[in-house]
Amino acid sequence: MRKFPCQNPIPQADSLCYALSRRTVLAGLPLLLAGCGANYGSTQDGGFSVAPVDLTAVDRSLLRQEVAWNGKEKPGSIIVNVPERRLYLVLGGGRALRYGVGVGRTEGMNFRGTAVIGRKEKWPRWTPTANMMAAIPSYRPYAGGMSGGPDNPLGPRALYLYRNGRDTFFRLHGTTEPETIGQAVSSGCIRLFNQDIIDLYNRVPIGTHVTVVQG
Questions:
Q1: Quick check: is 34 in a domain?
Q2: At 12, is the pLDDT very low, low, confident or very high (cuts 50, 70, 90)?
């Protein structure tokens, strides 16, 4: 599998949950809810296979889970907190869905401010920008674009951020490198576990308001 900087199976989470003792469940309920409530197993999607996430190798706090929310944003809004490496989808009623994300390698690479989702794509085509190719010469063979698929650095879904009707060239997308979620490694886009970007894609429409907070 190819890996791009702008970018071990285990049993299903439910099986893992049933195997735990009642005492363990009560002691670690918040984290277990994330593992049991969100499926990070393998799945078939659009003719491609989405690989499972190795839950033994990731920080459980990075997994999708519902949390308390006291912000003023309207339900349906997305907030990306870059320093936290977390994305929040506001649900309303003081609740939000929290997702772990990977962010830009440096603060200057990250988008900041507000935008809207101007476009949504399944198994999107990836085309590196001129700046990306200048910084990383190995991207040059893909100047004409790379078709969607398991090796594509955007993963199975991409949400394109627009401002004033124009593409900002920043995206919320999946990844070929799930081990980088929670880190500052990308060329500026916000990456999620593939299972999480599919979940987010299904929940938000075009026009969704997005705020990226730098801290």
A1: no
A2: very low
How would DSSP label each residue in 87-133?
EEEEEETTEEEEEE-BEESSGGGS--EEEEEEEEEES--B---HHHH
Question: 94: domain range?
Answer: 42-213
Number of domains forming the structure of the chain: 1
CA distance 77 to 92: 10
Summarize the confidence of residues 50-77 as an average pLDDT. Answer: 96
In three-state secondary structure terms, 57 is helix
Residue 5 covered by a domain: no
Closest CA to 55 of 201, 155, 193: 193
Confidence of residue 127 (pLDDT cuts 50, 70, 90): confident
Average pLDDT over the chain, rounded to an integer: 84
Q: Show which residues are catalytic.
A: 173, 189
**So what's the pLDDT on residue 105?**
79
Nearest to 186 by CA among 194, 177, 195: 177
Nearest Cα residue to 132 out of 89, 79, 170: 170
In a domain, 22, yes or no: no
> Where residue 79 sits, what CATH number does that domain have?
2.40.440.10
